[in-house]
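target protein:
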Amino acid sequence: MRSRLWLWGRDGRPKGPRGLLSRPSRLVLVAAAALLTAPTIAQEPAAPKPPCDPAAGFCLGFEGWLLTVRTWTPGGAEPRDLVGARLQAELRHARWRWAVRGDATGIPGEYKTGEWETVRSLEGHAAAAYDALRLPGGVTLGPAAGIGAAIAIERDDAGFKAEMPKGITAGLGARASWPGGWVYVVAGQHQALRGVAAIATWQVAMSDRVASVGLAAVGSKDWTATIGLGVRWK
């Protein structure tokens, strides 16, 4: 009889675990169950870091690219297909821009990133520009100046490296940029050409990670160009 009263109670209603516990105990168990079974409270995602504002200070951008290009050299030689890597950075402040880049290229199948013995040529460039005009849509235009140099590491069968007619590439001109691309157009001298040359350098995004890259220089008697694709790795 005790067992029956213990299970059903004196009023004839069943006494399960809820009936056997006091009210404070029930509240404790309910709270514990809620804590154990409730999903983890989702935290508010961290607010994205606002882009650097050149008007408020100095802003540094850095990019790394893997390159596959075709290059045409003066004198009518057969074009060469090359692969390589590019590192470039740009420092901005107010309307000023200072950019540097370095390229290392080699012959496909031989070039390996980080192994200098497989590099055929190295080049470095620096430029400064001023965004004199800011047009709708993020387009900027302004004067620019650039200087650069390239050295050939590859040797011919006789053991000689290629010699350039001039020591450096340099010029004065203009820079234009827009969301996803930029171009420098300057007049001056190019290492591979004699006399005065018009030089254009560009990078135009084709997707989030792929861009058309190139350099073309035209002199009074000859021309040279390097045109290809870059794949962003940083």
